[in-house]
């Protein structure tokens, strides 16, 4: 797909970090523990698009940790450097766990088979044979992605409501220049890596028809409703 490079890196407003703040951060970092963060063991680069608009494509850097062998959770940044913006998160589950979800829930999850086998999902800096050992497992999983920061439209703060995102499922969807930009920066070839992953398999039962939005777009909307209060809830249980 042809198009413009829609992945941007807006400047966050605000004063530079002061020396006193930096010293305080250093002190608390020495004293406190960061258990959930220290479990992160993996950096994946991929691309997401908005559930209702495939033309809005975003480069997404996932920093992931396993909860167990069938569930991992990832923080998503727009770039991997220290100035990366935390733009979203993704949960990855095994096919077995995915199949336990209600059908209405399955629509929010996307398959990973194409992303892996096409080469567009990769681990920056990790030799191909090593990353393919894990990506062979990832190809069989499903993911649920929420983005909070629409950096592709230049927002310099996380504005609006969270957005359900989807992933690539076939050739011709990804912008050519977006792909070429990533290939150049990370010195990778999606086509060559795709050849090396040709023997990989997706979900044992095939990609579920309700996954990937059930084949339709998903638009995140905000609906106003009457808010339940503690007082009204108390009346319910009296």
TrEMBL record:
UniProt xrefs under Pfam families: DUF1264 (PF06884)
InterPro entries named among the record's database cross-references: OBAP-like (IPR010686)
Domain of life: Eukaryota
Family, per entry: Belongs to the OBAP family.
Name used for this protein in its record: Oil body-associated protein 1A
Naturally occurring in which organism (per UniProt): Salvia divinorum
Gene this protein is translated from: OBAP1A
